[in-house]
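Dear Dr. H.,

I hope your travels went smoothly. While you were away I took the liberty of generating a structure for the chain from your last submission, since the lab meeting agenda had it listed for discussion. I wanted you to have the full record in hand beforehand rather than looking at slides cold. The sequence, exactly as received, is reproduced here:
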Amino acid sequence: MGQHPFEPIDIRFEVLIGLILVLNTLSFGVGFAGPWGDVDFTRGVLGLIGLTLLYRAWYARTFGFHGLIPALHLWSKPHRSISRILLASIATLMLSWLIGNSMLQSLFAEPTSLILTVSGMLMMLMAIYARLVFVSGLSDEEE
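The corresponding predicted structure, in token form, is as follows:
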């Protein structure tokens, strides 16, 4: 948390660096061979670091502190969030399919579609779990 619990967290640095690293994964991005001798692998690793920074910035903006796991007790409007996460997961899976099965494939590193598919499936799993907890009554109310 910041110095004061109601002080907004500055996420501009994480967003800027994250966007630069993610955009660098495109085919016109720059990179170095690294110890593994593959420029594309290096750009992919840097892109994953960029995605992590963007996720941390979103988390800090949404929940007010830095973290990684969006625990369900932190959600303020779960019913609205469930549908948004489900739509975002479907959009991510569609984007993954589009990147992996079209002429866009030459613009991205080879594992881009795989990484987007994993991200989309994790978002869908989170939406299904949240729906089971909040709508279907799966939560344990005795604790």
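Two observations you may find useful: The longest helix spans residues 39-63. The chain has a mean pLDDT of 82.

With kind regards,
E. W.
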